[in-house]
Amino acid sequence: RAFIAKLRKHVADATEHFEDYNYATALQETESFFWSNFTDTNLDLAKNRARAFEDGATGDQALAIGSAVASLRLGLSVLLRLFAPIQPYITEEIWSWCFSEEGAADDAAGKARSIHVAPWPSDSDFLGVTPPDHPESFDVAVSALGEINKAKADAEVSMGREVASLRLLASPETLSILEGVAADVLAAARVAEHEFKAKADLEPGQFQVDAIEFAER
Questions:
Q1: pLDDT over 70 at 75, yes or no
Q2: Nearest CA to 124 among 78, 69, 71?
Q3: 190: which of 19, 160, 178, 199 lies 20 to 30 Å off by Cα?
Q4: Distance linking the first and last C-alpha atoms of the chain
Q5: Nearest 5 degrees, angle CA 214-CA 136-CA 57?
Q6: Nearest Cα residue to 169 out of 135, 203, 193
Q7: Beta partners for 170?
Q8: 163-209: per-residue pLDDT in tens?
Q9: How far apart, in whole angstroms, are the C-alpha atoms of residue 84 and residue 81?
Q10: Closest alpha carbon to 106 in 94, 95, 93
């Protein structure tokens, strides 16, 4: 939900740039959002839940899985449409893989045969998505995952290396926000055991790896 909130704001900003004929700015900001908030982050954070889509989960687990899949599909649909006026061919090709066969109507997002007759992204794409309890939780999750990955890089191990144990420091306020997204962060970083410990002098949203041990290969 926090990722979708960021995406919604980006749609509003990109639309304003297009309406003001600032196409280069719209493209630059959409490219930045695509790489920094979608492919390198939300994809990593959501993919473990999304992969369990066909495992027959029920109840809260099924809702969690469905939420991950929905965020990835909505993110891809919206970003493709934002790119489409400037990158028409590759966006049409990817649209045909994911969305064009879901329906014949050319008046509903995600059901248009061609991306170039699909509606421009707007608030209607986000109807029914409840605002997040902590809008900053996505950025907190990204920051935590980035700090763990930095520790892996410093240790010269691969990003896919499993972590046997981890002690992660942050301010009490940041840790309270992290709790809501910790499962996705730990799954993305492949952490088996962890401890979150408060350190009051760290800035909001800042993390520090205090101890890390990697699993045997």
A1: yes
A2: 78
A3: 199
A4: 35
A5: 65
A6: 203
A7: 198
A8: 999 999 999 999 999 999 999 999 999 999 999 999 999 999 999 99
A9: 5
A10: 95
How far apart are the C-alpha atoms of 146 and 138, rounded to whole Å? 12
The arithmetic mean of pLDDT across residues 79-106, rounded, is 85
The 10 Å Cβ neighbour count of residue 74 is 20
Q: Enumerate the β-bridge partners of residue 163.
A: 191, 214
